[in-house]
């Protein structure tokens, strides 16, 4: 009989199961404490119990253990200086959504050669990085693209994000309803808020969906809903970090009292016009709205603003990279190969300045 399935499949290979990966890289007391305490701090910030500002900062994409750990060490030192006003979460993105084709992240292609696609090795590298960061006391945040990665890594994640391209995905909404960490849903690529609001309503509700158990066996998953899902404003056809746009988002949220009434603002992507050099400008505009004053001029403070996101690397900008042609050994691990990022010096300056302003505000 003629075969009617897998006509375009070249081959299938098995990958490491969630349990096998966890056995290779078991949780430690320190890592567990970092994850659990950070999740609770983020929940308290989202619900208004903690008055600090959450800032998710880190590379557009993680391309090596060396890069991630070096950035994490710097973030850990900075966190000690600003912990009274700001909760830092490191952006640790292992999966990258592509508009058409391209490098899909360290998990998909850890050798960055467009040939091997050693996903087992990618998952091992990702879990090792997350273990080391949490051992340092650094909270990790990541974008969830695949159920495969989520099932194997989510125990080490303090905050997760669903991107603009996948906010409308039923699967991602279902997964988020079962996640143990707070989850931010970005508005759609066109700036539409309805998509994100509907995602929050779905993810905060109990769901039944198809997933895998710790042994990798397909199973039904029954979730209880995730009440700490929230909206992330990233711009669309126009930026949406201005007071009118944020007020509009808060107004939408107020129609659904059961949802988290706080917003996180992404300083990159369409809010910066995809110009990494404008991220600091966006950050400061939003910080002014949060605090309610600047240079003696007062405006109504917007307490719904609870967090900001920065695409930041050790060195600024991006480097020439042609996927499948540029060799990994020729790459500078501290410069982005995807979206351009601000450098560490600017990142530190932005956050130390914000800390000083927030301290002054709390003491006024």
UniProtKB/TrEMBL annotation:
Q: Which UniProt keywords apply?
A: Amino-acid biosynthesis, Aromatic amino acid biosynthesis, Transferase
Asked if the record carries the keyword Lipoprotein, the reply is no
Which reactions appear under catalytic activity for this entry? Answer: D-erythrose 4-phosphate + phosphoenolpyruvate + H2O = 7-phospho-2-dehydro-3-deoxy-D-arabino-heptonate + phosphate
Q: Which residues form the DAHP synthetase I/KDSA domain?
A: 40-350
Molecular function (GO) terms for this protein are:
3-deoxy-7-phosphoheptulonate synthase activity
This protein's pathway: Metabolic intermediate biosynthesis; chorismate biosynthesis; chorismate from D-erythrose 4-phosphate and phosphoenolpyruvate: step 1/7
Q: Which terms does the UniProt entry file under GO BP? A: amino acid biosynthetic process; aromatic amino acid family biosynthetic process; chorismate biosynthetic process
Name the top EC class.
Answer: transferase
Question: What family is this protein classified in?
Answer: Belongs to the class-I DAHP synthase family.
- Protein name, as recorded: Phospho-2-dehydro-3-deoxyheptonate aldolase
Q: Which source organism does the UniProt entry give?
A: Desulfosarcina widdelii
């Amino acid at each position: 009989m003629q075969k009617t399935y897998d006509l375009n499949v070249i081959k299938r290979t098995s990958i490491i199961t969630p349990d096998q990966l966890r056995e290779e890289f078991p949780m430690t007391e320190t890592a567990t404490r970092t994850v659990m305490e950070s999740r609770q701090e983020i929940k308290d910030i989202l619900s208004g119990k903690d008055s600090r500002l959450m800032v998710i900062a880190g590379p557009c994409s993680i391309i090596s253990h060396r890069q991630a750990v070096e950035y994490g060490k710097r973030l850990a030192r900075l966190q000690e200086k600003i912990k009274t006003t700001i909760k830092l979460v490191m952006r640790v993105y292992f999966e990258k959504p592509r508009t058409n084709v391209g490098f899909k992240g360290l998990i998909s292609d850890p050798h960055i050669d467009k040939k091997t696609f050693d996903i087992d090795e990618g998952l091992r590298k990702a879990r090792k990085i997350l273990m080391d960061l949490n051992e340092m006391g650094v909270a990790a945040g990541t974008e969830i693209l695949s159920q495969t990665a989520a099932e194997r890594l989510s125990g080490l994640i303090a905050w997760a994000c669903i991107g603009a391209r996948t906010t409308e995905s039923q699967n991602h909404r279902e997964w988020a309803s079962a996640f143990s960490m707070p989850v931010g849903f970005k508005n759609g690529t066109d700036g539409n808020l309805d998509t994100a609001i509907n995602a929050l309503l779905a993810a905060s509700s109990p769901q039944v969906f198809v997933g895998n158990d710790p042994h990798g066996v397909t199973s039904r998953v029954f979730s209880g809903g995730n009440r700490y899902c929230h909206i992330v404003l990233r711009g669309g056809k126009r930026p949406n970090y201005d007071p009118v746009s944020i007020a509009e988002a808060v107004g939408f949220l107020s129609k659904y009292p059961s949802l988290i009434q706080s917003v996180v603002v992404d300083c990159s992507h369409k809010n910066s016009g995809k110009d990494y050099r404008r991220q600091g400008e966006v950050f400061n505009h939003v910080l002014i709205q949060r605090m309610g004053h600047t240079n003696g001029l007062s405006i109504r403070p917007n307490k719904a603003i609870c967090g900001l996101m920065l695409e930041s690397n050790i060195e600024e900008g991006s480097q020439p990279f042609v996927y499948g042609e540029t060799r990994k050994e020729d790459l500078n691990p501290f410069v982005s190969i995807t979206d351009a990022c601000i450098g560490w010096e600017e990142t530190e300056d932005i956050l130390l300045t914000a800390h000083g302003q927030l301290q002054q505000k709390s003491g006024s």
